[in-house]
Specification:
Layout: H1 3-11, E1 13-16, E2 19-22, H2 29-35, E3 59-62, E4 69-70, E5 81-83, H3 87-101, H4 120-127, E6 152-154, H5 164-173, E7 178-181, E8 188-191, H6 207-211, E9 217-219, H7 220-223, E10 232-238, E11 247-253, E12 256-262, H8 275-279, E13 294-296, E14 302-304, H9 307-325, E15 332-334, H10 340-354, E16 359-361
Parallel strand pairs: 1-5, 15-16
Antiparallel strand pairs: 1-2, 3-4, 3-5, 6-9, 7-8, 10-11, 11-12, 13-14
Amino acid sequence: MSSTKKIKQRCNTVKLDGETVTFTAGETIYEVAKRQRKDIPTLCYDPRLKPFGSCRLCVVDLEGARNPVASCTTLVTSEMVVSTSSERVNKYRKILLEMVTSENRGRLDVDSLRGYASHELKVLVDQYQSRTERFDGEHSGMSNQDDDNPFILRDYDLCISCYRCVRVCAEQEGDHAINIIHRGFDSQISTEFNGILKDSACTFCGQCVQTCPTGALADKKAIRSTHLEGEIDKTRSICPYCGVGCSVDLLTKEDKLVGIQPAMDGPANKGALCVKGQFAFDFVQHPDRLTTPLVRGQDGHFHQASWDQALDRAAEGFRKVVQKHGRHSVYGVASGRAPSEAAYLMQKFIRAGFGTNYIDNCSRA
């Protein structure tokens, strides 16, 4: 290594809480601090989004700076001296949290089924022992009870205008279905022309729900199960609906599936899901789901049968069709709700069994 490179390496250091650490050009103070496992609170920050710096909770003391700076938007430079948890900084954070919660109508302890990040504000208020009534007065946000979509609850009484939902919709999904309207205490997250989500560009991916730090946007299907007894268990799995392989966390209470959340560390999706992966799980425990084979009798009605009877009837039906119309008369469509092994067997059944490539999957559409 040349002497010039060695000098550059030595210069790429910053003093963080008294410890000298290295950094890469272009990193922010927040990114370096998180890598060193420093506890810096945020409300407007999502690692998948561009730094915004609106909540100011991530402020740190910077030697030579008159006021604390937002660590999520301040780039690190060589020889910086940073304090992430001074008495002054912690006081700032406590007051900022008290001001934020003054608009929140006092409801902080929401059910975790509302969304992945729904407890972030509550955790920070408890951590900094902030008094939620200190600046109590005018409230912003007004819930949209008229939006009858089956997936997303818009409970804006809990909104703190962090804009994470707006930004994830724009930056991650590219939908721009929601935005901020008005100013001050009249600020409101809204669709175009203040309509309902079904009439907007919303694709119901649920990203806004999972990034919301207060539960103002919530999973309607999941919170239907808040009355059920038992702790919420998370089980890592893979979404079966297409070939992308999105990682998901299945939420269960006892033996009942109550919700699905995207895995933020999923290698294929990084916290993203489509509407099917996020919300289409009712079939798992649906009362109309078949639990035994049915075959049609001479009376034209379906009757319960054994697996051998059902398979024999199906095989005979395929043989008759092929004899009469040829092998190209059979076309297979695999279900996106079936596991990968079933999809493999389905294509093997068509390709090896009938000698055609007439096979598709409903998830491709």
